[in-house]
Amino acid sequence: MGRPILRRGKSVSLGIHVREEIPEMYSEFADFEVQRFLGRPDRLYTLDSEYEWFESIPKKEDMRVLAILLNRKNSSGRQGHDHLLIGNIGIHLIDRVSSKAEIGYLLFRKYWGRGYGTEAVSLVVDYAFQTLNLRKLTARVFEPNGASSAVLMKNGFRLAGRLREHQYINSIGYVDELYYELHRGS
Ligand SMILES: CC(C)(COP(=O)(O)OP(=O)(O)OC[C@H]1O[C@@H](n2cnc3c(N)ncnc32)[C@H](O)[C@@H]1OP(=O)(O)O)[C@@H](O)C(=O)NCCC(=O)NCCS
Fold first, then answer.
1. DSSP secondary-structure letter at 10?
2. Ligand 1: distance of its center to the CA of 117 in Å?
3. Is residue 7's pLDDT more than 80?
4. Where are the beta strands (DSSP E) in 24-80?
5. Spatial separation of the C-alpha atoms in residues 107 and 111, rounded to whole Å
6. What is the pLDDT of residues 127-176, one digit of tens each?
7. What is the CA(34)–ligand 1 centre distance, in A?
8. Domains recognised in the chain with CATH numbers
9. Among 48, 56, 95, 127, which residue's CB has the most CB atoms within a 10 Å radius?
10. Could you identify the atom of ligand 1 that is nearest to the CA of residue 148?
């Protein structure tokens, strides 16, 4: 499927979401393991609300949400690449006064543990600093989510603080929320 690609990496790229992939995203997003560390477990997502979310993306000046795409050789054998949707990544709470924002991301479960999250974060950092000209990025992680902390630290984020027993997670209990930060050029 043709779509604008904003950043190309070795294994993954970041591109614009297309309407046709919303049902697939919806079913992958429903996976408990994917949802577990995202917060808001009380929220009921419907397919209609996902379409509304998709329609709202270009209207919101304070966020950019991009598709994480696996690079594949063009299946028709022609030169170039086609892409497979494997998750999404967002730059949220974009604050033009202080030139900062917060990132969030998820991969569909079958693509975990292959370095794709690390590369997607490196691409979104580049997009945020070079294209949006932001100065600082932050990210919030629930402490048991070791993979997410590792992804951030491998991209140069530093632990800036923690809120103790800040989030309730079913089957774990109250967990600390960790705050990570990255300054451009650090
Ligand atoms: C978090 C997430 C994006 C990570 O993506 P990923 O592609 O699996 O991550 P990568 O393969 O790039 O890297 C994971 C790293 O974490 C490490 N890791 C995995 N589990 C870990 C744990 N419990 N503790 C510490 N490190 C861990 C891996 O060893 C790997 O590091 P390495 O490459 O140096 O060995 C993915 O697990 C996901 O989508 N989770 C559900 C949604 C989510 O939690 N989003 C983030 C909310 S803050």
1. S
2. 7
3. yes
4. 64-73
5. 6
6. 999 999 999 999 999 999 999 999 999 999 999 999 999 999 998 999 99
7. 11
8. 5-134 (3.40.630.30)
9. 127
10. 1
